[in-house]
Design goal:
Helix 1 links the parallel strand 1 and strand 2. The protein is about 40% helix and about 20% strand. With about 230 residues, the protein is an alpha/beta fold. Strands 3-2-1-4-5-7-6 form a 7-stranded mixed sheet, with helices on both faces. The two termini are about 30 Å apart. It is built from 7 helices and 7 strands. Helix 1 packs across helix 6.
């Protein structure tokens, strides 16, 4: 007998790798709980670099599929919005992209970027997600959570867009090694320690978030909106 799906989860990111960096351990927990986790990425994460673009885009997408297979996420779509230039297009285009997926799968819990991130694509995705999931009558979703991304959330400043202020901590003590294994598929996107986007410091961040609430390793989130229907 197949395991019953408890919840449908949607992870909305700007770039392939944000999902594993920000909540790889939490996705694994959802998987272990019997939830179904879907993901969409808005850009290829490569085009802004203009170096061997087509080859690198394909390499990044392959890494995304390998990481997703390990942590239990199913990619639904990869958008073709301009990498690191999402502020150059009408916001409504991004909203409609998200709304189509919303209508197709009817998710209950949504994860997206923090509005405080330094990366402009992250900010646009956060805003578009909140618009697509406006709390109108007849909606079925239950909760929207934002996550942090090393080298983006931590690089911002309160004077720009405020700070990331987590109010939800999820234990990933038994999943941290699998998260780091999944991140190894994105080795081209990782830096050397002590940069925050390094394997070592990502583990340190999980230790720090865990220490804030008496856990060994945790991922932290801001609950942006929660509705008990």
């Amino acid at each position: 007998m197949s395991k019953e799906v408890s919840n449908i989860i949607l992870v909305i990111v700007a770039h392939p790798d944000d999902e594993t960096l920000g909540l790889g351990g939490t996705i694994l927990r959802h998987k272990n709980q019997g939830d179904k986790i879907f993901g969409i990425a808005m850009t290829n994460g490569i085009s802004a670099r203009n170096i061997h673009e087509e080859k690198q885009i394909e390499k990044r997408k392959k890494a995304a599929y390998k990481a997703a297979d390990l942590i239990g996420l199913e990619w639904l779509d990869f958008g073709d919005f301009p990498d690191n230039s999402m502020d150059s297009i009408p916001l409504i285009n991004v909203v409609k992209f998200i709304e189509k997926v919303k209508n197709d799968i009817n998710p209950k819990i949504i994860y997206t970027h923090s509005a405080s991130d330094l990366n402009i694509d992250h900010k646009i995705v956060n805003e578009s997600t909140l618009i697509a999931f406006r709390p109108r009558a007849g909606e079925a979703w239950k909760e929207i959570r934002s996550f942090e991304v090393p080298s983006s959330t931590d690089y911002s400043h309160e004077t720009l867009r405020g700070y990331f202020k987590p109010n939800l901590y999820i234990n990933i003590e038994n999943l941290i090694d699998l998260k780091l294994q999944a991140l190894s598929f994105y080795k081209d996107e990782l830096w050397e320690s002590p940069n925050s986007r390094s394997i070592n410091m990502i583990k340190v961040l999980a230790q720090y978030r865990g220490s804030q609430v008496g856990l060994r390793y945790a991922e932290a989130f801001e609950v942006l909106r929660k509705i008990s229907r």
